[in-house]
Every structure is written in structure tokens, then in C-alpha cells.
Amino acid sequence: MLNRRSFFNGIAALGMVFLLSGCNRTRPALKILLLANSIPSQSISKFRKSLTQKTALSFKAEAQLQQLYDFLEDWREQGKEAQEEPSWIDPLIGFLPFVRQRPPKQTNLITLGHSWLSQAIQNQVIQPLNPDNFSQWKNLPSSWQDLVRRNSKGQLDPSGEVWGAPYRWGTTAIAYNRDKFKALDWELTDWSDLWRPELRDRVSIIDRPREVIGLTLKKLGYSYNEQDLSKIANLKSELRSLHQQIKFYSSTHYLQPLILEDVWVAVGWSADILSLQEQYPNIDAIIPQSGTALWTDLWVEPSRKNAPSSEAKINTQPSLENKWIDFCWREETALQIALFTPASSPIILGMNRANLLETLQNDPLRLPNAEIIAKSDFIEPLSKEIEKQYRDLWKTIMPNVDSEL
């Protein structure tokens, strides 16, 4: 029910807008397939007004990042039958029901979660971007620039090409029931608090080994991307101790036990937690002081060699894609993303915090402390050898469960 890929499935898409301006195929066209509720309608309208030339614009929303990646694969294999087409959203009517049709035609840009980036590069379903085409590239924090520089195998490479344009981000956070903690003489501040005896069997957590092992590594002073787990002698015992604290593992329902008060604490993605807080004001959240995992969503450009020839003729205005990405990196748009969606924009991090609205300054989920961000990590791809270490370690904790790493 609740994860950053599908918050209440299609309901999260209610906050998105579909905008179509003109249907004449002779006009320049920009077609974007995006994650629902990741761009405010105000921003789309502002972009439309900023264009000096009449342009056919279309924005389609899809509720799940997995489905967006699947569309990239579909476009590579044009004969494959689609599972479903994302719904159109009309600014006056609202969200229209999902309908099962053929896959959408290839778009100019599509949202991709950074955890899919290596796979997308390896499978040749996207093509690199040229950062020289973006006037706002320089305002993107260096860690976000480094994250999207990859070689042809999808591995991080400081001299590699740029494969995506990060436009929003968030963290792995700890949500908790404020009322349950009133009787305790301590407050949640860091990952180590999850091991406290008061929280025995009172924790739910996302079912992702890299996240669970990663937060344990953080507790011990290491990175989420530690390259040799065999050197950390007490890692296995710490994981086993944490396992005793956890009542539920789920990447789709980890917040439900918190709502029902079956647990006091839930570890998951900040976008889910922010959406939940709008309905349940007794749910608070913290970003652990020792640092956490970062996630980011990107604009990527589907590989044009997979597009039908008729579609290739339509997509003859690459400058429109560049304008949209640059527009998303403007400070005004960054603020709108942070204020009107359950995430933030990386551009916010380079702005003077004193000039930001008090709403953002006092929201640790949208704008964590700068020191915490500096201690945090994007979960990066691992070599096959190191990936096996993570899988083998997880099997010692959950021998009968085959979880996505």
C-alpha cells in the first residue's frame, strides 16, 4: 500500500497535472512520462507560459517507478504487449481511471529512479545527456553530478558520460508514533536507537537488504556501500540483534503497522512518510544523525534507436528537452517541488537556507541538516563479488526469504 513507488497506487497521482497544448504534428512537440505527484501542476503551467513558440506539450503520469522502467524495456522490444498505459490527467476533470491499452508511444523524457540507472545503461534503453546544453547544470550539487556520471557498463565513473538529470530526492527516514514515545525518557535521534530494548518487536522496516545492512553499517560507522563486509567482525551479530527488534519486513506495507499501532517505529522512504503525515499528525519522523541513504529520481532520455521512424520525426526538437530539464533546476521550480510534492529538489541544497521559507527550514524530511546530508550515501551498484557478500550475509539472517537486494 505504501511505498515511494506506489503510494496508495493511483491515488498519489491526484496531485499531478496533464497538460496538452495543441495537437498539430507540425509544431515542435515535447512528450514527458513522469512519476505521479513528482512535479507540481504550477510548475508545468509556468513552463508552458515560458515557451515563446507554440508547442505541443503532453505530460503523462504513472504511479510506479517500476512501471516507468518497464516502459523503457517495452520500447526496446516494440512488439511486446504492454501491461497498461498510464492515465491521462486533466487539470479540470482530475484523475481518470487506469485503462489497459497498448504501451504509450516513446516519449522525449521519462522519470527513472537512480537505482535503475545501471540496468538501464547496460540494457541500452537510455542515451546520455550533454551537460553543456544545460545552463543550470552548475547549480546541481557535485554528489548528484557524480552519481549520474557512468561508463557504458553503468558503473560510477568520474570521466563517464552523464546519463540522467536528477530533479528530486529524499532519504531513508525513521517514522514513529509520537504518543507511544511520551512515556519514554529518551528521544529517537539515530539508527542505534532501533536496538534499544524498549523497541523489541516494535519496528517495521522496508524489505531491502541493502537498506537494512546499510543502516547497520551506519550504526557501526561505515558506509552503505562498504566494499568488504568480511572485515567487519561484529556486523553479523548486530544484524541478528536488529532482527529481534523487527516485527514486520515489507516494502509495500511497512507503514500500515505504524498506523494501526502494531509497531511504534517504521523505517522507510521519506516521500511515503511525508504523504502519511498529512493524514496522521501523530506520526513524527527523524533523519538519523549518523547519516542515511539518499535516493533521487532522474529525467532520462529513451534511446532513440529504439523509436519507430515516425516517432523519430516528431522528436526533432532536442532543445525542448533541455529547456524542461533546465526549468526543473531553476530555484523557483525547486522551491515548488519542495513545497508541493513529498520530496525536495537537489537545487535547494545550494541555496541560502536563511532565505528559504520557514516551512522548509523546519522540515527535516524535505531539508535535513547539512551535516547529516554530508554523512549520507546514495546506495551505489556493487561488483558481482561484493554483491554476493551482501546476499550471503542476508541469507544468514533471513534464510527462507528471497528479497530484492
From TrEMBL:
Gene Ontology biological process terms in this record: polyamine transport
One of the record's GO cellular component terms: periplasmic space
Coiled coil: 225-252
Superkingdom in the source lineage: Bacteria
Localization, UniProt: Periplasm
UniProt KW keywords: Coiled coil, Periplasm, Signal, Transport
Record keyword Acetylation present: no
Record's keyword annotation contains Signal: yes
A Pfam family matched in the record: SBP_bac_6
Gene Ontology MF term list: polyamine binding
Gene3D superfamilies reported in the protein's UniProt record: Periplasmic binding protein-like II
Name assigned to this protein: Extracellular solute-binding protein
Native species: Lusitaniella coriacea LEGE 07157
